[in-house]
């Protein structure tokens, strides 16, 4: 693993942002520019770009863009090929020193109030802050409004976006992105819930989420049933017994009658 980390200005940083990257150099200027445009002092921000063996010059471009930014610290990690974003995020988070942590995909961008509003929510006493977002797909943009947190909702479907700010204590207590499921972020949020995290929905679109053919989330849909089943079995304390039986059945070859991205939490839906 090759990395660079420059002198700090403020430690520990208020927030560390981990950007997992695989051949997304074309998006890096917009992504990092959106962090520069945040309404807060960048000397309180650390950025770690974790590069998954890119072949398009992503790592070198990241260094060029990060060096002039007045950050608390920055690093570029050049990793051996991982093949999926979860382990890449973990490598970056393992290096992060911020009091709050955020993973941000390089093809997405933060709107100017994302960090101030999210940090304000954490300061009010919660552990995870997630916001509505602007979806860009097929050249069109629309606002996606999310629902307030409830355990049963999260058990049924991923009600959080990929980008949410959380306190580092949750990482220190062992939460990790797992490679066993293609729905890595959903699994991660459930891990945080099992650690007792308090979630808050910030009712405002605060970042830009780009949907395109290269998204890992699109590829994940091909492995929908087994990926949902792995979430259930790896977080069994979060689910009722009939959902666990459903998950075992799916992994044994039983048909999944739920729609894409849905896990049964009601007995009649699980068929048990």
In short:
The chain has 272 residues and is of the alpha/beta class. The protein is 34% helix and 23% strand. Keywords: Transferase.
Describe this structure in words.
By secondary structure, the chain is an alpha/beta fold. Among the domains are: 1-107, Alpha-Beta Complex (Spore Coat Polysaccharide Biosynthesis Protein SpsA, Chain A), CATH 3.90.550; 223-270, no CATH class. The chain is 34% helix and 23% strand. It is built from 11 helices and 10 strands. Strands 1, 2, 3, 4, 5, 6, 7, 8, 9 and 10 form a 10-stranded mixed sheet that branches. α2 links the parallel β3 (45-52) and β4 (73-79). α9 packs across α10. The protein is globular. Mean pLDDT is 93; it is low at 1-8.
Index terms:
Spore Coat Polysaccharide Biosynthesis Protein SpsA, Chain A; disordered N terminus; globular; Glycosyl transferase family 2; transferase activity; single chain; 272 residues; alpha/beta; 34% helix; 11 helices; Glyco_trans_2-like
Give the tally of β-strands.
10
Low-pLDDT runs of 5+ residues are 1-8
Molecular shape: globular
Which class do the helix and strand fractions yield? alpha/beta
H/E topology pattern: EEHEHEHEEHEEHEHHEHHHH
Could you tell me the radius of gyration in angstroms? 18 Å
Keywords: Transferase
Organism: Humidesulfovibrio mexicanus
Domain Glycosyltransferase 2-like: 16-148
GO molecular function, one term: transferase activity
